[in-house]
Amino acid sequence: MRKIIVSEFITVNGLMSDPGSTMNWVKDTFNDEMLREISNQQSRVDTLLLGRLTYQFMMQYWTHASPATEDEKMIRYMHNTSKIVFSKTLQHVQWNNSILAKEINKEEIRKWQQRPGKDMAIIGSASIAQAFINLGLVDEYQFLIHPLMLTKGKPLFENIKDRHALRPIKTETYQNGVLCLYYQPSGSQ
Question: Which CATH architecture has domain 4-185?
């Protein structure tokens, strides 16, 4: 069965964007180790699970990205990878290989997991990640934790219900101070 992975850049205090809803702070520490890790993550994933805001931002950004400013493999990956967009307000999606889902339905998602293919990853999309966590649908967490605290911004774990015990499966510290942490649910609450 295909795994569902939450894969996020976050600050030490668990924020995934600043008050302006940007992630400009990621650029401050981005290095080759992080690019290599993201490439490894992408090699395991053929479907992205996105909320409306993340979808709209990424479609705008990646459809206009240039090899002069972005990694060419990353541009191709973002364009060619399947995307499931969760939105109650969008009427249609336009980005290549995208489909629209009006709700997060646990049974439907389990059916998607049974289909052939690689793993599926939630990137950005805090509300989607929170809903999947609360439904017990997340099989793995991949965090790149930046050595930074923000006073305000969007928290990744704001609406998590209950307690979710995790066990580490990978830890690395990069030269820029970023921590790469992978976890799996431990099964105990």
Answer: 3-Layer(aba) Sandwich (3.40)
The residue ranges of every structural domain in the chain are 4-185
The SS3 of residue 34 is helix
Burial of 20 (0-12, 13-18, 19+ CB in 10 A): exposed
Confidence class of residue 20 from pLDDT cuts 50, 70 and 90?
confident
> For residue 134, what are the CA distances in angstroms to 3, 55, 88, 162?
16, 21, 19, 8
**Which of 122, 128, 143 has the alpha carbon at shortest distance from 9?**
143
Report residue 134: phi and psi, to 5°. -65, -25
How many residues in total does the chain contain? 189
Q: Return the structure tokens found at 99.
A: 């489909």
Tokens describing residue 152: 């305000």
**Which 3 state secondary structure label does DSSP give 103?**
coil
The model's pTM is 0.93
Asked if 150 and 117 count as a contact pair (C-beta separation under 8 A), the reply is: no
User: For the segment 67-96, what is each residue's pLDDT rounded down to a tens digit?
Assistant: 988 889 999 999 999 999 999 999 999 999
* Nearest residue to 121 via CA among 3, 40, 26: 3
75-80: long-range contacts, CB 8 A cutoff, minimum separation 24: 77/42
Q: Do 47 and 117 meet the contact criterion of CB atoms below 8 Å apart?
A: yes
